[in-house]
Design brief:
By secondary structure, the protein is α+β, with helices and mostly antiparallel strands. The protein has helices at about 30-40, 100, 170-175, 235-250, 255-275, 280-305, 310-320, 325-340, 345-360, 365-390, and strands at about 5-15, 15-25, 45, 50, 60-65, 70, 130, 145, 160-165, 190-195. It has two domains: about 5-200, Cyclophilin-like (Cyclophilin, Beta Barrel), CATH 2.40.100; about 215-385, Alpha Horseshoe (Serine Threonine Protein Phosphatase 5, Tetratricopeptide repeat), CATH 1.25.40.10. It is elongated and about 85 Å long.
Length: about 400
């Protein structure tokens, strides 16, 4: 039995690299479809002499949350990012004839090369790769979609020819992008590169961390784990805690960016799985305690990366929680004060340091911060007075 080929799609959003999607192609179940799709990824077929058919440079033109992300109109949605009336109405397969390419006397390139449906199966899971036909059977060319939820209403209507094996978080990044009322993205979501993939080519990811350090083998988004029962709160807590500890290991290596990604991922699991206190009081307490630690860690790593607004945000999230231990409140106040100082919001910083001192009056470091800031504010006040005096003094 021949192993299925694997291809990759490198994705950017608004010019910023996001990461790599890897798909396994069902060569035996959908041979014609796979041949066409792989050829468009490999750029090994030309029309009109030097006109190469390729997905490279093509942008997504239809995104519907909890349904699909759609791409592949290589006639109208490649090159300059623009929403036109024709977006999503075209395509071109490697099977197009010269007559189809020219489309009679039309001077603009038209190219379909429609081919037959294959493997019209059930869409009973997320992350299937399927052809988007032109609304009628056997009208496939180059448009394709990836499902982001179970979609039974598509059963028996579209050729399923692959599935996403890596980069599910990249698909989610596409899915959660802002769109207009027609589902057209507000920013360009583009295939930068594509081709055959093997493990040696790696799995670059730029808006999350796929480092398995500390045993984190969980998907970026909780729902995408096939083996994690959302009703098993103890297992969910263990997953969230493993992800958090993975971030801490990266933090100790001074890999602050990826530590931040891990903490944010863990927080996503906490928010998804934390049970109501009436349902499971013990796990509610454990999740809440973990959430406090995550807010503290995210404020700290944000300070390390000089992302001061983020540090203020996560410290404030913690301080808005109920029944936070005094020592954790003090840490949050201190870190928010540090961020305010970095932004030269000295009055806000002084208020936070003083609130911290009320909780822990014996902390000498906090006292030193207060004295230093009071002197800074006094010097600033004196400087302002001198400038005003100069302005009103006689020449």
């Amino acid at each position: 039995m021949v192993s299925n080929p694997q291809i990759y799609l490198d994705i950017s959003i608004a010019g910023e690299k996001i990461g790599r999607i890897v798909c396994e192609l069902f060569a035996e179940k959908a041979p014609t479809t796979v041949k066409n799709f792989r050829s468009l990824c490999l750029e090994d077929h030309c029309i009109e002499e030097d006109k190469v058919l390729t997905y490279r440079g093509n942008y997504f033109h239809r995104i519907i949350k909890n349904f699909v992300v759609q791409c592949g109109d290589i006639i109208h949605c490649s090159g300059e990012f623009v929403k036109s009336d024709d977006a999503g109405k075209g395509g071109c397969s490697i099977f197009a004839t010269r007559e189809e390419i020219h489309n009679g006397n039309n001077s603009e390139l038209q190219c379909f090369g429609n081919f037959l449906d294959e493997n019209l199966g059930d869409f009973n899971a997320s992350f299937y790769l399927a052809m988007a036909n032109m609304g009628t059977p056997d009208s496939n060319s180059s448009q394709f979609f990836i499902t982001t939820a179970v979609s039974p209403h598509l059963n028996g209507k579209h050729s399923i020819f692959g599935r996403v094996t890596h980069g599910k978080s990249v698909v989610r990044s596409i899915e959660y992008s802002k769109v207009d009322s027609d589902g057209f993205p507000l920013e360009c979501i583009k295939i930068d590169q594509c081709g055959d993939w093997d493990i040696l080519k790696g799995l670059p990811l730029f808006n999350a961390s796929n480092d398995s350090i500390g045993g984190d083998t969980y998907e970026e988004y909780p729902d995408d784990n096939e083996d994690l029962d959302s009703e098993d709160f103890s297992a969910a807590y263990e997953a969230a805690n493993i992800i958090k500890e993975s971030g801490t290991l990266l933090y100790k290596k001074k890999d602050y960016k990826n530590a931040y990604f891990k903490y944010n991922k863990s927080l996503r699991y906490v928010n998804e799985f934390i049970p109501d206190i009436e349902v499971d009081a013990e796990n509610n307490r454990k999740f809440t305690h973990l959430k406090i630690k995550l807010y503290l860690n995210m404020s700290l790593v944000s300070l390390k990366m000089k992302r001061y607004d983020e540090a203020i945000k996560f410290s404030s999230f913690l301080l808005d929680m109920n029944e936070v231990p005094n020592i954790d409140q003090c840490k949050a106040l201190y870190r928010r004060g540090e961020a305010f100082v970095a932004k030269k919001h000295y009055e806000n910083a002084l208020q936070d340091y003083k609130s911290c001192q009320e909780i822990n009056p014996d902390d000498r470091a906090v006292m030193d911060k207060i004295l230093s800031l009071e002197k800074t504010l006094e010097d600033k006040k004196e400087k302002t007075k001198r400038n005003i005096a100069k302005f009103f003094s006689s020449s």
